[in-house]
Amino acid sequence: MKIQIINGPNLNLLGTREPSIYGSRSFAELLEELRSRYAQVEIDYYQNNSEGAIVDKLQEVGFDYDGVILNAGAYTHTSVAIADAISAIRTPVVEVHISNVYGREAFRHHSYLAKNCKGVICGFGTDSYRLAIESFLNQ
Fold this sequence. Notes:
Belongs to the type-II 3-dehydroquinase family. One of its GO terms (biological process) is quinate catabolic process. InterPro entries: DHquinase_II, DHquinase_II_CS, DHquinase_II_sf. Keywords: Amino-acid biosynthesis, Aromatic amino acid biosynthesis, Lyase. The chain is of the alpha/beta class. The protein has a single domain (2-137), classed as Dehydroquinase, class II (Rossmann fold), CATH 3.40.50. Helices cover 33% and strands 19% of the residues. The chain is built from 5 helices and 5 strands. Strands 2-1-3-4-5 form a 5-stranded parallel beta sheet, with helices on both faces. Helix 3 packs parallel to helix 4. The longest helix is centred in the first third of the chain and has 11 residues, at 27-37. The mean pLDDT is 92.
């Protein structure tokens, strides 16, 4: 099984960015843990702060991978382009969020991406990524 994790804007700052919301662990630490726990799964990682680059990555992996885990950050609430890219590919996508977006500002309560995704996981901290992997393994 081959899974692509795609993180959007500001997620390169995990571990230092607002630790009260996003935790104090870097994504590199989390990725190492996930790869160790799921050694039977090829887990690739990509992060970019640019909307177009995320669209390009979805198109690149969206026909060959078994799953995509996407934390589009703020683009979740603004990007029709990323939503369209998800609907254009064959690979199923799980939308993830570290924080509970429904417990935050009202503008975060709407996702343009969710209707095109296999599911949405939010509010479980970085464990949201593990839960997304489990969703692909248990399908």
